[in-house]
Amino acid sequence: SAPLLLLLPLLLAVAGAQCPAPAELKTVNGTRICAMFYTNNSPYYDQCCGGKSLQVMPGEDQPYLPYAWNNDISSLVVGTRCELKVWSKKGKGGNTKKFTSGAVPRLQEIKRGLLFGDWNDCISSYYCKCN
């Protein structure tokens, strides 16, 4: 049980990562945001969700990401009662993945399948909806 006690501070540090909580995804005037994309992550969870950020509004459907964002998303947060579906290729092609409410500080930890690597810098289209 000693090794577990040593991990406890690490687990608590992960819970307090820099990524916003799903319930915090709102514009300055209080409008709900479906998801947030970030270009930077880090080996340290408290430094993830950095770099440029992109707000994704409820109902937003992007079969083609803007050039500056295509294959450049490393962290994301999905709002409360929202669902984000992403594709690895433009025009909603390639691998697909659904993310529900929560923070994903490091997309490189999310596998794209047995042979396809991970989702870091791999999102080319998306659709986001909220209930």
TrEMBL record:
InterPro entries for this protein: Syncollin
Record GO biological process: exocytosis
Pfam families: Syncollin
Transmembrane regions listed in the UniProt entry: none
Any one cellular-component term (Gene Ontology): zymogen granule membrane
Subcellular location: Zymogen granule lumen; Zymogen granule membrane
Keyword Nucleotide-binding found: no
Signal peptide segment: 1-17
Bilayer topology: Peripheral membrane protein
Superkingdom assignment: Eukaryota
Keyword terms: Cytoplasmic vesicle, Disulfide bond, Exocytosis, Membrane, Signal
Coarse class of the protein's main subcellular location: other
Function: Functions in exocytosis in pancreatic acinar cells regulating the fusion of zymogen granules with each other. May have a pore-forming activity on membranes and regulate exocytosis in other exocrine tissues.
Protein name as catalogued: Syncollin
